[in-house]
Amino acid sequence: MALQIYNMLTRQKETFEPLQEGRVNMYVCGPTVQDYAHIGHAKTYVAFDVVVRFLRYMGNEVLYVQNITDVGHLLDTGEDRILKKARQVQAKPMQIAEYYTRSYYDDMDALGVVRPDIAPRASGHVPEQIAMIRELIDKGHAYVVDGNVYFDVTSFADYGKLSGRRLDEQEAGTREAVREEKRHPADFALWKRAEPEHILRWDSPWGEGYPGWHIECSAMSRKYLGETFDIHGGGVDNIFPHNECEIAQSEAATGKPFARYWILVGSLTFDGVKMSKSLGNFLTIRDALRQHRPEAVRMFVLNGHYRSPVDFTEDAMHAATRGWERLMGAVRLTRERLRAAQEAPDGTDGVAAFEDTLTTYRARFIEAMEDDFNTSAAIAALQELTREVNTLLNSGEAVGRSTLEAIDTAYRELGGQVLGLVPDEETQAASAEREDGLIRILIELRNQARLQKQFETADRIRDRLAELGVTLEDRPEGTTWRTA
Fold it and tell me: Residue 76 pLDDT > 50, yes or no?
């Protein structure tokens, strides 16, 4: 079976055929770094992590690009999100972007998400965005009004082909307050004029200003992956207007197809309700990892299909934790037996047929993953294999070293290399978890000392941690730490 991908552009499963056999160019919309990453980000980026892992496991060379939005993501009011956060906490915009970018990667590292090959920042690619805007103006797809540049949606006949929205159905002011200067309510900003108080500003042919949100992904994907590339990923919440606008401006500029396969991840709710800080149901990844193992969070995400919406609940997390522990129980037992068998003879031939069982479940696993990355079915195959492994290892039969090695290899490849659920050596993960736990205990003791005005003790805890390479940061929402 060849890999089948549900292409959001065509609304059907298609056989995946990259432009260049054996090489996949993939772009995924990254985070806007104005706050801590939340559990919805975990769903999105764990899902794409497994897509990349599986493509590589199947022998493809993958060039994975994921951007960082540190300028240009506008609120409905037209205000830049980074700038708004900077004003709230009285910091410089790039200070905000840098802090939360580091925090985002710390969260992704904790979740075992492999970092992208290229992680371009919007602020570092303003010249490319300006060049693309000039192309669009020259070709009649964009127009300038008093230092602002807008894309003319009526100039691109296919506008709406990803989301299915037609121009005559779109409401005015979808993302931004409708300006009278626009020719059409759905026209979107490519470049914004910077008002005198606006800090983020660059020189341009249209005066000082800053790029709109959508243009960054078009400019950066084109720079690193070419005018047409294989896979574009993102969250379904951004299908309109962001992804739709990407297609319009990219294809209007080049006259060529933009991304050939669109993979969009379903949304996440928290106890049945969309996450919102105002509702008090907003859960950051860092807070989730204080309560749950990172592998359990991955298991929760991968238990559902990436396109399906999921509801984050404590019951679901407990179920994911139990499922992961069942899987790891067989992994641990296999590795214990394997260590004990290192110098022993190969055992009886009576269990040699188990390698046929491994072949069967490996095939089922790959078949599930080739069916539009169906991680739920792939995990089910692993769990069924686990029942077979437990039956074998608890049967009392002598299991040969080669059979144990084959079982361990299957877990390392399918559960580890592809799904990121099985660590190569669990002792490393356990050591890291213990280290985090000890740091949290010391932070609690320091906080108690500060409340009791025992500042010398609190300072001594902070200084001793610093000597060990652990830097504490006291913030309004609590004390956090980072390691050198």
Answer: yes
CA angle 132, 137, 141 (to 5 degrees): 100
Q: Contact at 8 Å (CB) between 55 and 24?
A: yes
Counted residue by residue, the chain has a size of 484
392 in helix, strand or coil? helix
Reference 86, options 35, 36, 120; nearest CA is 35
Same domain, 211 and 235: yes
Of the listed ranges 186-200, 224-238, 250-264, 425-439, the least confidently predicted one is: 425-439
Region for residue 280 given its phi and psi (left: phi exceeds 0; alpha: psi -120 to 50; beta: otherwise)? left
Distance of CA 232 to the CA centre of its chain: 13
Residue 310 confidence class, pLDDT cut points 50, 70, 90: very high
Q: Does residue 180 register a pLDDT over 80?
A: no
pLDDT of residue 172: 45
Range of the domain at 444: 430-483
Q: Does 383 fall in a domain? A: yes
Number of Cα atoms under 13 Å in the Cβ half of residue 403:
23
HSE value, Cβ hemisphere, 13 Å, CA-based, for 346: 8
pLDDT of residue 351: 59
DSSP one-letter string for 120-180: -BGGGGHHHHHHHHHHHHHTTSEEEETTEEEE-GGG-TTTTTTT---GGGPPTTSSSPPPT
pLDDT above 70: residue 475: yes
Q: Quote the CA–CA distance of 251 and 245 in Å, as a whole number.
A: 10
Which of 400, 417, 422 minimizes the C-alpha distance to 331?
422
Which residues touch 36 (CB under 8 Å, ≥6 apart)? 100, 103, 107, 284, 285, 286
> Domains in the chain: how many in total?
3
Q: How many CA atoms lie within 13 A of 163 on its CB side?
A: 21
pLDDT at 482 > cutoff 80: no
Here the tokens at position 437 are 């736990």
Contact in structure between 221 and 29 (CB atoms under 8 Å)? no
* Strand arrangement, sheet containing 259-265: 61-66, 23-28, 229-235, 259-265
Q: For residue 227, what are its two tokens?
A: 């005018």
Compute the distance between CA of residue 29 and CA of residue 35 in angstroms, rounded to an integer: 16
Please identify which residue in the block is written with the tokens 């993958």. 62
Q: Which helix (H) or strand (E) holds 28?
A: strand 23-28
DSSP state letter for 278: G
Q: What angle do CA 281, 287, 290 make, to 5 degrees?
A: 135
> Of 230, 256, 285, which closes a domain?
285
Residues 298 and 274 reside in one and the same domain: no
- DSSP code of 281? -
Question: Do residue 438 and residue 413 come from a single domain?
Answer: no
Write down the pTM of the prediction: 0.84
Helix or strand or coil: residue 265? strand
